[in-house]
Amino acid sequence: MVGVPQRQAPTREPTVLAPVVRPLLSSALAAMLDDVHAHSGAVYLQAPDEPVLEMAVKAGLPRAFTAPWERVGLSAPLPVAQALRELRLIWVNGEEQMAARFPRIAVVLPYPFALAALPVATPGTVYGAIYVTWPGSRPPELAEWELERLTAACERLAWRLERVDAGNLPLGPDPGRLTTRRTALAGGTAGSAEAARMAARLPHGLCALDLHGSISYMNPAAAEMLGVPAGALIGSPLWAAVPWLNDPMYEDRYRAALISGQVTSFVALRPPGDWLSFRLYPGSDGLSVRIARARPLAGTGHTAGMPARGTARLVTISHLLNLATALTETVGVQDVVKLVADQIAPAVGCKALVILGSHGGRLHVLGHRGYPDEYVIERWHGVPLSEQIPGTHVLTTGVPAFFDSWQQLERLYPKRQGTQDGMASWAFLPLIASGRPVGTCVLAYAEPHPFPADERAVLTSLCGLIAQALERALLYDAKQQLAQGLQAALLPHSLPSLPGIEAAARYLPATLGMEIGGDFYDLVPTGVRAAAVLGDVQGHNVTAAGLMGQIRTAVRAYTTVGQPPAAVMRSTNRLLIDLGVELFASCVYLRLDPGPGRVVMARAGHPPPLLRRPDGQVRVLDLAGGPLLGIEAEASYPTSEFALPPGSVLALYTDGLIESPGVDIEDALAELGELLALYGDEPLEALADQLVRDTATAVERPDDVALLLLRAVRPV
Questions:
Q1: pLDDT in tens, 310-321
Q2: Dihedrals φ, ψ of 584, to 5°?
């Protein structure tokens, strides 16, 4: 299968979704679905001010199925986001691939279906992405003609969006939600009436559901079996109109039929003791359902709950499963806050939220969304836990509190600090993990909002999931703060100014595990000369970082007392062996003499520096050196001398900058040299940013990275 060719990166801001764009999107999506005989689909546009894809139009599936993904982060592990990031086709041919590559979707929609996601982009601008799906019965590979039509449709849409963006394409109003193709009955209107009369005469029940599960037709036999008048059923979702069918297990069969395109069935108990069989036949615009009497299921004790008629689920099963899966992927506290704001707040209808923790016996605001006035949030911060306000009471007792009006809140907490926050009702929910409160989630509603018992139970259960993720996130953030603080303390806070030498340095922690490692750099002035050192201690833990600090201090001390480069390496090697830590280190040491423009180098198993000459040519200084530090007590470290005329740039780096899984080390070194040649005339700080941004390890770094750049200049 041929993939979509890579496009250039966007060169300007993404387009804003204006009302005029929607009919264009609707017509493009409808044409695409027809063109490749797809089952459903949606168009996403990139939000103008944040790294988010927003669903603009959709077709073929009800909103409840797609609600968890109406807003998708560009970094999310989802097909549309990956298609946009990589600017190529993403093809998933069934359940197994979906579970392996996109588990978030597989958990929520565990049905056989195929999916294709493609970017919508011109060579200069990325606008968004599209996905389309087919039932699971289709061939496992995307046909060449399907690929060509999908690619062409996305390209046409991208160019038309560019014209809209330029203001040159007036379009009419949008119909809103797309409708799907309908198959006409033979015989026209007369045939439809005769079909209804025929269905009314049949002894078994028949009904029709639209894509959203609402009943559009029901014969008398079906109404009799369900025990609800037919007039009360038409237009209502089957699960809401028939209380004993309001069970996620039954709705799951409807979802399975609609998404997979395959016939499904289930057996349900109509209280007190009548068993009914439901068989669902999917089509392009809904489902036909055959209802018949069934024999009792032996040995089953299942009886569906019977909520009050018309009660809608506060949070759909799709939301709940997607939330549970997404929470397992959160890392830090802000990840948890963002997830709750993007997925839970819209589902429960709240206007704003605050997540509170405690530190030093006082409230601590961990994150918030929806409050335009920062003062409203600041009044929470630092409040003693002994203060009698809802936030502290819930945090210390673990008991939720619900207030459906401002008056109720004032009556129960008359001494509460602060002023009105512009909201009308609140839910204060304890976040309890490992048997103890770890925080409070405050949901604020813009309108008066009653909290019936079933809604309180759902909100409390949701917060149980949030609490577990928050507990992990708090621990992770604490470890990261410790790691970053230790690393910052061990590395130079700034580089000294030297006559004849400009310097810039970068340190990037590994993106896997704790953000701490053994990479280090230093620049030591010694009169008219200077010494530059860069090294890498084996490991990514506190031990490696501590040893790195000892080595850096030792190198600085040996340099200060006047040891030549070879002696500095020998002394540092003996120190490392005497410490007995059984860790190795690589190092490159330079004695810089800017006056005559000469450099003396000693290496201990370290990657060779790169030298960019004033004419732009780059040389790899793979000169003589010795073994890694800490291996052989009597190791020697020969030195090499080379010229450093004004305008030259030296690049010292650790292997984390060029080593990446699946990338040949020689190719990575050549790429680094090309970047140095291309951008070497830029200011040194900009050059440092360019080198760490454009290498193979810019996104994922299995190892930490240290970079030290030195440019020879003519003294003023």
A1: 334 445 556 666
A2: -105, 165
